[in-house]
Design a protein that fits this description.
With about 290 residues, this protein is of the alpha+beta class. About 30% of the residues lie in helices and about 30% in strands. It contains eight helices and eleven strands. Strands 1, 2, 3, 4, 5, 6, 7, 8, 9, 10 and 11 form an eleven-stranded mixed beta sheet that branches. A hairpin with a 5-residue loop joins strand 6 and strand 7. Helix 1 crosses helix 8. It is elongated, with a radius of gyration of 21 Å. The termini are far apart. About 25% of the residues are buried.
């Protein structure tokens, strides 16, 4: 679901990443191919227990129909004092990522599977490297600023729920999908566990039932745990890697977006592409005979 946490990097850069990403996904959601991509429009609201300092965040101009909830609408949420309604994009990655992979292969891309333990091993073969290794950057790039944020969600059957609801603290949300709802969640920094927690499950259900009591008539149909590759700020920059033979190979790092990876993916990728082009201009590819 596309809306955004605010990093401490320049706001204009965050704006560009978000705008480029949502424009890309909005175009898909309103095209004939949307059914095969897992990308679609979703309307709903975000509610806050206290009135936020910024009642109209910068991303409000990029989503559709952003407005403040009326007093009448807020009666639905007796534990909250302020709310916002808008239409954004929902991206179901179990469908979207395979679709992107097919698009990549169709464009002539090649996928090789293997284990990379040192970027220097790639530098002997390639003219430029793009590092999108997520939590793997801890070892691969020696980046100790990367850490996991554990997320647990539930897949839930309640087909009468059509609109998303998100608590402004980011910990509780109800997102309608193609086949089920996603109920969440957790945000546990430094927790590497991939085991489903019964305590987290009960906490998620309790909080979501409080947001929408109609869910009590629904049913859990699945559970999932994942680790968000997080950083205080995403790393998107170029580093020069020197090979044993003395050749410099540019590495474009693009990772650490945490729980906002999909939200920023396309915009960040365009920035990374720009850095790749600059790097290849400064370090032209070697001739291969």
């Amino acid at each position: 679901m596309l809306f955004l946490y605010r990093y401490s990097i320049p706001l204009e850069r965050q704006r560009r990443w978000f705008k480029d990403s949502i424009d890309h996904l909005l175009a898909i959601a309103q095209s004939p191919i949307c059914a095969e991509t897992g990308v679609f429009l979703s309307s709903g609201c975000q509610v806050f227990k206290e009135v936020p300092v910024d009642t109209r965040p910068y991303w409000a101009e990029y989503v559709l129909g952003f407005r403040t909830l009326t007093d009448q609408e807020m009666k639905r949420f007796p534990h909250h004092k302020f709310g916002q309604a808008f239409t954004t994009v929902k991206c179901e990655c179990t469908t979207y990522l395979p679709w992107l992979q097919k698009r990549f292969l169709k464009a002539g891309g090649e996928i090789q599977q293997g284990k990379v333990s040192d970027l220097h091993h790639l530098a002997d073969t390639y003219d430029v490297i793009v590092n999108c290794s997520g939590l793997g950057a801890l070892s691969l790039a020696g980046d100790t600023a990367v850490y996991p944020v554990r997320g647990q969600i539930l897949k839930f059957h309640a087909p009468w729920v059509k609109n998303f609801i998100r608590d402004g603290d980011g910990l509780t949300y109800i997102y309608p999908g193609v086949n089920s709802l996603t109920l969440g969640g957790t945000r546990q920094a430094g927790n590497w566990s991939l085991e489903v927690s019964a305590a987290d499950r009960e906490g998620i259900l309790e909080r979501c039932f409080r947001l929408d009591p109609s869910l009590r008539s629904g049913q859990v149909v699945g559970e999932w745990v994942g680790l968000r590759p997080s950083r205080e700020n995403p790393r998107l920059e170029v580093e020069q890697l020197r090979t044993a033979g003395g050749r410099e190979v540019p590495v474009v790092h693009n990772y650490g977006h945490g729980g906002w990876g999909v939200t920023l993916a396309w915009g960040a990728a365009l920035d990374a592409l720009g850095l790749v082009r600059q790097a290849l201009y400064r370090h032209p590819p070697r001739a291969r005979l």
